[in-house]
Each structure stands twice: as structure tokens, then as C-alpha cells.
Write a structure and sequence with these properties.
- By secondary structure, the chain is an all-alpha fold.
- The protein has ten helices and no strands.
């Protein structure tokens, strides 16, 4: 059965407004999901070791209410309107006046812009909502990996399976392309990982990167695996060198690869396979 939605609900403006709201939720996911996972790991470890561990109260994506990390002020609804509240508060907590991280409006604004770009790319079609969900998960993964060098299975694996299912029902690329994209995405970085480790004795990337590229392959098809990796590598090299030169990257630390994979995947999606292959001279 075909789902028909009024075109106005799928216009760039409408999806941009939706993106602002989704971006606000992504801020919660980026902040809380690593804490939820860390708490779970500690509880599991304590249970296996048969010891007691004193942990803060349980936290979820919806509870408890958002509060200022500095003074504990409960965020009122009118202080939680995407972008507008940040501007009205001039980027400071209404109670203690401590500066609010610009990360919050940046993610909200970025998600809005990307949702609008998806609307331009795919038009007023329900499949635009599917690609908006794909983009939203990538934004969350990129921010979490940048903060923690962690790409949670609770996001990468559902993204991978959703890509295969979307392909199977005919919403994205052909199923054979999606399946081999997932296989090629995982095995390509898995091979690089083991080659680097056997050569240097060090780990050059995490297993989450394999799963993320597999998910990108499931959504974009096997033909876009190499362009995605090339784009991510180029972007990562530029950012890494820039951070090194500005002393933002301390000795012994590294820049996570996940944000660049996610960024390259979004660029490939919005540009379209034909244009990407033209850029590389492969058409």
C-alpha cells in the first residue's frame, strides 16, 4: 500500500522544522546514551565479579528531566525550544548564567539543514522521511564517536539492518547491492585493521568503524563504499593535520574515524551516485 502525504508536509521548510526538533532529541542521545551504556557495563562487570558497586540512579533518554549540569536547574519547556531558546538565553543558563555549550544549537541547526537538503534531493516523497532518519542516526553517531571514540552497537546495528530491510522492500538500492555493500563495508575496514595490527602491533581503528561502514554500504550500495572511504580519509587527514598544527590534538591521541565516515556517507547520499562517480572520473 502506497502512503500518500500532503506535499507541504515533505517540503524543505517542513522537514527543516522537523530537523530542529529531531536535533534537540539527538542532543539528548549524544549526551545520555554513553552514560547509559557505561552504567550497564559497570553493572554487568560487578555481577560477573560478584561485587557490589555504588552507581548513580538509573538514567534513560526520557527521564530524568534535563537539568543544567552546573547548578541542577530543571530546564523549563520554554527554555528547550530548538535554537530559539539558546538565542533568547544568550547561550547561558537562566539560573546560574554558566555558558551553555554551543554543541546544542549546532546539532539542531545541522540536522535542520540536512533534513532540508534531503527534501531537495528526493522531493516530496515519503522516502525522504526514511533518508532523514538515516541522516539523524549518522549525526548522533558522529557526535558520540567524537566525544567518546565509541560507536554504539545500539545505533550501528539497527542502522545496518534497517538499510537491508529498506532495500528488500524496494525503498532504496537493489537488495543485491545493499547486501554486498554491507559485506564489502565490513570486510574492507576489517582487513585494514588486521593488516595494520600485524604490521605495527597497534590498533588503528575500532570495530564500530567496520559496522558503520557496513551500514553505509547497506543503505548506499557497494558501489559507494570506495568513494565513501576515500572521502572520509581525505576529510580526516585535513582535520587531523589542522588539529595537530593548532595543538588541539595532544601527543598520543588520535582523531576518531567515525565522524568522517558519517560525513562522507551524507555527502554521497546528497550528491547522488552518478555525480560522485563523475567526480572520481569513474563514469
Amino acid at each position: 500500500m502506497t502512503i500518500e502525504l500532503p506535499e507541504v508536509l515533505l517540503s524543505p521548510l517542513a522537514l527543516a522544522l522537523l530537523g530542529l526538533c529531531i536535533g534537540s532529541f539527538l542532543n539528548v542521545v549524544v549526551h545520555r546514551l554513553p552514560l547509559i551504556l557505561e552504567r550497564g557495563w559497570k553493572l554487568e562487570s560487578a555481577e560477573l565479579l560478584g561485587v557490589k558497586v555504588d552507581l548513580p540512579g538509573a538514567i534513560g533518554l526520557s527521564k530524568p528531566r534535563s537539568r543544567c549540569p552546573s547548578c541542577g536547574h530543571a530546564i523549563a519547556w520554554h527554555e528547550n525550544i530548538p535554537l530559539l531558546s539558546y538565542l533568547k538565553l544568550r547561550g547561558r543558563c537562566s539560573a546560574c548564567k554558566v555558558r551553555i555549550s554551543p554543541r546544542y544549537p549546532i546539532i539542531e541547526g545541522l540536522t535542520a539543514v540536512l533534513f532540508a537538503a534531503v527534501a531537495y534531493r528526493f522531493g516530496a516523497h515519503p522516502v525522504s522521511l526514511l533518508w532523514c532518519a538515516f541522516v539523524a542516526v549518522l549525526v548522533a553517531l558522529a557526535a558520540i564517536d567524537w566525544d567518546t571514540t565509541l560507536l554504539p552497537d545500539s545505533l550501528t546495528l539497527p542502522l545496518l539492518w534497517a538499510g537491508l530491510v529498506a532495500s528488500a522492500v524496494g525503498w532504496t538500492v537493489p537488495l543485491s547491492s545493499a547486501l554486498w555493500g554491507a559485506v564489502a563495508g565490513y570486510l574492507s575496514l576489517w582487513s585494514v585493521y588486521w593488516l595494520f595490527k600485524l604490521t605495527t602491533g597497534k590498533e588503528g581503528m575500532g570495530f564500530g568503524d567496520f559496522k558503520l561502514l557496513a551500514a553505509l554500504g547497506a543503505w548506499l550500495g557497494w558501489q559507494m563504499i570506495l568513494p565513501t572511504v576515500l572521502g572520509a580519509s581525505a576529510l580526516g587527514a585535513v582535520i587531523g593535520i589542522g588539529m595537530k598544527m593548532s595543538s588541539a590534538l595532544r601527543e598520543g591521541r588520535y582523531v576518531p574515524f567515525g565522524p568522517f565516515l558519517a560525513g562522507a556517507g551524507i555527502v554521497v547520499l546528497l550528491a547522488g551516485p552518478e555525480r560522485v562517480l563523475d567526480w572520481l572520473g569513474w563514469n
